[in-house]
Amino acid sequence: MLEPLRDPLLLWGLSFLLILLVVAAGIGGFYYRKRRNEERLVRKLVTSSWVWTHRTLEGNLYQKDPIATLESVQGIRINLKGNLERLPEDSKALQPVRKMHEACLKFLTQVGSLPVAGETGLRSGKWVEGGSYRQTLEDALIRLRISLDAGTNQLQEAYGIEM
What angle do CA 89, 146, 130 make, to 5 degrees? Predict the structure, then answer.
């Protein structure tokens, strides 16, 4: 019968196995925590996206205050950028979040160049229903909603999130 304490080779082998087991458990735990944190971040993002789409982008905020709509989309863009920075490089959420962020930038570039209501020389009729600035804003909002909804749907599908 072998006695591990008297056989140095067996003692070293058992020690090596124990160290490997501890290292593997540590790496596995780190990976699990990383993925769990990623999933939490994506769940929070999906919930936020639902709120943005249903409260800000589908509501009548743009009719009451077009500038508030621009500010809201700017806030959405900043939130998405922060999420992009926190997501791991191998995350399956990167592409949908990046597309959502780009859609916000496109919206802000297109609509941000419109004159502000009340600006000198601006005919107030342009912001009324059917006015050219209002129509540009509405069209840009429709495209932004579609992009944000598509990104949110991709995230829900990839992470098994139900709303």
Answer: 140
* Alpha carbons 48 and 12: distance in angstroms, whole number: 54
Tens digits of per-residue pLDDT, 36-52? 788 988 998 888 887 77
pTM of the model: 0.70
Residue type, 149: D
Nearest CA among 60, 22, 57 for reference residue 152 = 57
- DSSP string covering 135-159: HHHHHHHHHHHHHHHHHHHHHHHHH
Query: How far apart are alpha carbons 90 and 140 in whole angstroms?
Result: 31
Give residue for tokens 């000198």.
120
Q: Extract the tokens encoding 6.
A: 């008297």
